[in-house]
Every structure is written in C-alpha cells, then in structure tokens.
Amino acid sequence: MIANGNSTEHELRRDLVKFSKWLYRLGFMPGFSGNLSVRISSDLILTTPTGCSKYLLRPEDIVLVDLDGRQIAGSRRPTSEIGIHLAVYQCRSDVKAVVHAHPPLATAFACAGKALDVPLCAEAVMMLGPVPLAPYATTGTEELAASLLSLIPDHTAILMANHGAVAYGHSILDAFLKMETVEHFAQICLVAHQLGSPRPLEGLAIGQLHEARAKYLKNVR
Prior knowledge:
Elements lengths: L8 H17 L9 E5 L4 E4 L15 E4 L4 E3 L8 H10 L5 E5 L2 H8 L10 H6 L5 E2 L7 H7 L8 E4 L3 E6 L2 H24 L7 H18 L1
Helix pairs in contact: 2-5, 3-6
C-alpha cells in the first residue's frame, strides 16, 4: 500500500516503532503510556496499540483504523486514546502525524494549570507558537477529544490538564520534534521563573520570528 508522501505502509510502521522507542528513551512514554499515529490516506491511519510498552513495540503490532475509529487491520486493539488522534485528523487535513506523550516538565505545567503560552524563547515561537492548556477530561473518553477541538485548528501542540501533551505536524518526524520542543520550552520556562526575571519577546520580535517561520516552512515542505 502506498501511504503518505513517498513512504509505503511498511516504512511508516517502522517509523512509528522507531519514534516510539525514541520517545520512550526520552522518558516521555513510561509504562504503557503515550501513543503515535500517521495518516496513510485521506481516511486511514496507522496507530500504536493499547497496553504496549513503546520500547517493545514491533511493526506488526501497529493497527490500521479509519477516521471513525473502526479497526480495519491488526491483531491488537488500537490505543484507547485514539479519539485524540481522530480529532486532530478530522480538524486538520494538513496533519499527517500525531504524537501524544507525557513529557515530565510539560506535564507538570499541565498539572499546575499553566499553559506554555508566554513567548520567552525564539525557538519555541518558531517551532510551536503558543502551547495552550485544554481543560481536564478523563483519559480514553469522548470528552477528552472534545476538550481539544477548539484549540486544534490554531495550534501545533496542546497541553492537556493533569494529563500530558499532544503535538502534530506534516510528518512523524515533525510531530516528534514538536513534542521534544514542548518539553525543552517547559524546562526553559521553569528555570526562567525560578531565576525570577523572565523577559518575554514583544511585538516586533515576534512578528519577525513569524516571518522567518513562514519562510522556513516553505523551504522544508
């Protein structure tokens, strides 16, 4: 099966396994937590299964589902948080991959009820923009996906109150890098506030970064 871009379904399965292991090693997906997916056509996605360590994941464990969440192929069940992924794909036709993880510092901000939306770091403005905080909803429920709907169109990463984070982009690498940047930005925000003198970027600087971001995205796609 030919999937998104020039990658085959087999290659995308291997990518999901590779990035799952990387996220596990970073400490973003301990235990059975976290999940990843890629869009392989307009109405089909590959996703990690439920109840599986991301370190032990194999290509044959990956599950194929449609955009209504119906399982099309695979011997395991899809992640119990498939609703998060479906919400993103249904809202954003440009998105090709989604990562949901529990990076420790970013999750701590989510547990403290704090968004990562103060423009303290040029890299974060370029890569992410503001990272808002979605209201709390129970994991694995329709309410969790619904809590993200108003935020998905205008953001590329979202914190989920008392839960974790979700990031998405034009490839699994892009979604992974955004999740990595969310955690990096959380660390910067924490230390800046501990130092007691955070200095947010202001209008002109932010505008210039947005221009630079637009040029960068044009070159990488």
